[in-house]
Design brief:
Largest sheet: 5 strands, mixed
Shape: globular
CATH class of the largest domain: Alpha Beta
Number of helices: 12
Order of helices and strands: EEEEEEHHHEEEHHHEHHHHEHHEEEEEEE
Strand order of the largest sheet: 5-6-7-9-8
Bound molecules: zinc ion
Number of strands: 18
Helix content: 25-40%
Strand content: 25-35%
Number of domains: 3
Structural class: alpha/beta
């Protein structure tokens, strides 16, 4: 390839040399890879180390043509808008109100962010390894591609250039909302998670893809929680996912009702144009989030069992293709107490509700608190579970609000069907009793 440019490929660089005024390089992988590819551009390369893994970041010295086209088009729209001001029907008006276009803004170079990107990639790798086991390759290269599209290939990430840009640069391209920023911030972590979910293990058929996209999404969200320990971004990301699932199509049906996650690519249709990405990515993430919650130690709140499970699963199927049922069977083997709701060591209840079916429950709560003669209080409550089938079953956490910053978990109630009654003895009287304060269930919560 021509000399001034740089090439980066899957696998490890064995040697590079010059010949007939061209650059050549040889790349090799130590094991079979599901896909192989390369990226090529005018990059600045930065390196860092995550334990034994070499992290490489390839940042563009310029901006790709597609973004310049976006910018030119925005400038044209702005001029049109200025000429026709007063006409509310002009297309693009809404967009232009949010965009600050200065035609002389040309600073789209991303190389100055490469050190920070490298350090975040190192952090993500060090965060994921205790969860998912040793990183499966020797190096991890992160490189830019134009557009919104991103992919995590073995040891080589192709990520949207938007994720390399600063919020200011994105704003000048009309892509500057908070939602977009949260999404782009966890994009690299999502693609890094694919090194395990997609490269270390693969999917048997389109039915099983939900685990790879949904779980990579969830690990991206978890990394945001690690990065921002107050948990705001993590909660926001889960909320955005829920909102997308509850958003309705033109006939007023929720996107979640497009079909079970297990239907994969068939979820997109003329009725649900965004059915596939919404259900696979957003419900898939929520499914793993709910398993994470159900496997928490009820006393200590530790998620050690979940971590062991994920690691054992990835080790057990290393280098193999897996089906949804492999995941279910692995959960049933040494089933966690919090998952064995039916006492038969089976996960049918969970998979039948969340994987092979549709439906998001709505929760309401009626309760009364009585002072007891011997001291303390009795809380009597009735949890109503609606908008799901009669035999829908889900463990729900009950919380007491004792002050503005004092929210305590009171206990867990397994709700089956339309309603469940419970009684708890309390030492102090809560100001308010609520459900699912930690957003552990994909539900509509009417108690907050
Ligand atoms: Zn993905």
């Amino acid at each position: 390839h021509p000399k001034p440019f740089t090439i980066v490929a899957t696998g490890d660089l064995v040697k590079e040399w010059e010949e007939a005024d061209q650059k050549h390089s040889l790349w090799e992988s130590k094991s079979e890879l599901p896909v192989a590819g390369f990226n090529y551009g005018d990059y600045l390369k930065k390196t860092a180390k995550a334990g034994a893994v070499a992290v490489e970041v390839y940042a563009n010295r310029g901006i790709e043509n597609v973004y310049l086209e976006v910018k030119t088009r925005l400038e044209q729209l702005r001029e049109l808008y200025l000429q026709r001001q007063g006409s509310p029907r002009i297309r693009g008006e809404l967009l232009l109100n949010q965009v600050s276009i200065t035609p002389d803004f040309t600073d789209f170079d991303t190389t100055r962010f490469s050190d920070e990107i490298a350090s975040q990639v190192v952090k993500a790798l060090l965060f994921f390894e205790p969860f998912m086991g040793e990183y499966p390759f020797r190096k991890l290269a992160v490189s830019q591609i134009p557009g919104r599209f991103s992919q995590g290939w073995p040891s080589l990430l192709y990520v949207s250039s938007l994720s390399f840009m600063s919020p200011e640069q994105r704003m000048h391209l009309g892509m500057g909302t908070d939602r977009e920023a949260d999404f782009l911030e966890c994009l690299h972590a999502h693609e890094i998670a694919h090194q395990w979910w997609g490269n270390q293990i693969g999917w048997k058929s389109y039915h099983d893809l939900w685990m790879f996209e949904g779980f990579s999404n969830y690990f991206g969200y978890l990394f945001m929680k690690e990065k921002h320990p107050d948990g705001k971004q993590f909660r926001d990301l889960l909320r955005y996912s829920k909102e997308k699932l509850l958003a309705t199509n033109s006939s007023g049906q929720t996107y979640e009702s497009a079909g079970p996650v297990w239907l994969g690519g068939r979820l997109s249709s003329s009725r649900f144009p965004e059915g596939y990405p919404t259900v696979i990515y957003d419900k898939g993430a929520w499914i793993l989030h709910m398993l994470h919650y159900l496997m928490l130690d009820p006393i200590t709140g530790s998620d050690q069992n979940f971590r062991f499970f994920i690691q054992n699963f990835l080790t057990r199927f290393n280098g193999k293709l897996i089906a949804t049922d492999d995941f279910k069977r692995m959960l049933e083997k040494n089933i966690d107490k919090g998952l064995d709701l039916e006492g038969n060591k089976k996960m049918d209840w969970f998979f039948d509700q969340w994987v092979y079916n549709t439906g998001i429950p709505t929760y309401r709560l009626d309760y009364s608190i009585t002072a007891l003669k011997k001291g303390g209080y009795q809380l009597k409550g009735k949890i109503k579970q609606q908008n799901v089938s009669e035999d829908f079953i889900m463990p729900v956490e009950v919380f007491g609000r004792f002050g503005p910053d004092k929210i305590e978990r009171l206990g867990r109630v397994v709700v089956t069907g339309n309603e469940a009654n419970f009684k708890f003895a309390l030492r102090t009287r809560p100001l308010k009793v609520t459900l699912d304060e930690n957003n552990e269930i994909l539900c509509q919560n009417k108690t907050l």
